[in-house]
Amino acid sequence: MINPVRTAIILAAETSAAQVTTTAAESLAETTAAPIEEEIKEVLSETLGEDLAESVTGLNRLMTDVWNGFVEKLPTIIFAIILLILGIFISKLVVKLMGKALDKSKLDLTINHFIKSVVKIVLYVLLVTVVLTLLGVPTTSIITVIGTAGVAVGLALQNSLSNLAGGFLILIAKPFRVGSYISVSGVEGTVESINILYTKLRTLDNKAIFIPNGNASNAVLTNVTEADQRRVDHVFSISYDTDYKQAVGAIYKALTKCPKILDTEGHKPFVRMCAHSASSIDIQVRVWCETKDYWDVYYDVIEHVRMQFIEENIEIPYQQIDVHMKNA
To answer: What's the pLDDT score for residue 178?
Structure first.
């Protein structure tokens, strides 16, 4: 017959033995790890020197701490990367939708481009701020860095700030807009876009010219297409032996062959003698046309006047010098 008291005593003895064994194993591990670390340190000291061994040991601890911190922050870093990618996508989508809404509005194209540029920059700055905050960077530190960077960038990029102010002046004063043909700072072309810092022109030979907004707002600027009509000016020369009235009549006939020339009140063709040059009589011709037809009219007038002069045998003089010789 099994004695219950004896059985309980045996179980208690076995449990105590197991606890003693576990405690002994843990103590052995602790007492073993310390000597191993000390032994490694002694080996490094003998091999590399005591100072270098201390440096290597410190570097090892630093790398261990960095790795442990990285592993601990890894989920947050992954979430921050996902948020950054998603934020960039959403920012582009917002700018695109805003662009479509602005295109349907009655705002000027110049203001549309400018608003989209500003909104894009603001969204990206907010996105970077949110990501840095998520990674544990204090908001006050971010604001301080942005403020300090703003001052430093402002001092380093004074010209860029001048261009930024010039962009606002262009939007307010509107000396030109997208689609205008302008001449400024020795260059000319059609305004393709007005951005925050510069204005982009497209020349007649399809070159792109970028003008800083500071220059565009401060320089003398000519807006060629500001009005709906433009005047085309030409000077034609005839020989002194040619009948002046015949030449004027020939020019009027040539102008009637140019259908794009305006012949309305205040925009009548003008043909008058303007100078007695060294070898010719010069005739001034002024006609009006729609701004979009300027170059067509400019070349049509030259071609038709030339053909009319040939048809009526009107002489176009060459540069000449009369030489008088005296007998010695």
So the answer is: 86
Q: Does residue 224 contact residue 278 with C-beta atoms inside 8 Å? A: no
How far is 182 from 131, CA to CA, in rounded Å?
A: 44
Among left, alpha and beta (phi > 0; psi -120 to 50; other), residue 174 is: left
Angle between helices 4-48 and 50-104 (to 10 degrees): 90
CB-CB contact of 116 with 98 (8 Å):
yes
Cα separation, 245 vs 235, in Å, equals 16
pLDDT band of residue 14 (cuts 50, 70, 90) is low
CATH class of 229-311: alpha beta
Residue 45 pairs in a beta bridge with none
Distance, in Å, from the CA atom of 305 to the CA atom of 300, rounded to the nearest integer, reads 8
Tokens 């600027």 locate to 221
Domain spans of the chain, in order of start:
80-156, 161-223, 229-311
Both tokens assigned to 228:
């709906």
Question: Nearest 10 degrees: CA dihedral of 305, 310, 316, 318?
Answer: 130
Q: Residue 103 burial by CB count (10 A; 0-12/13-18/19+): exposed, middle or buried?
A: exposed
- Crossing angle between the packed helical segments 139-156 and 109-134, to the nearest 10 degrees: 140
Give the Cα separation of 24 and 52 in Å (integer). 36
Contact criterion met (CB below 8 Å) for 216 and 252: no
- Best CA proximity match to 218, nearest among 264, 288, 177, 169: 169
Which amino acid does the sequence have at 245? K
> Which class is domain 80-156?
mainly alpha
Strands (E), 108-207: 181-184, 187-194, 198-202
Do residues 118 and 167 lie in contact, with contact meaning Cβ atoms separated by under 8 Å? no
Q: What is the pTM of this model?
A: 0.53
What CATH number matches the domain at 161-223, 3.40.1190.20, 3.90.550.10, 2.30.30.60, 3.40.50.970? 2.30.30.60
Render pLDDT for 37-69 as a digit per residue (tens, 0 to 9).
Answer: 555 555 555 555 555 556 656 666 667 766 776
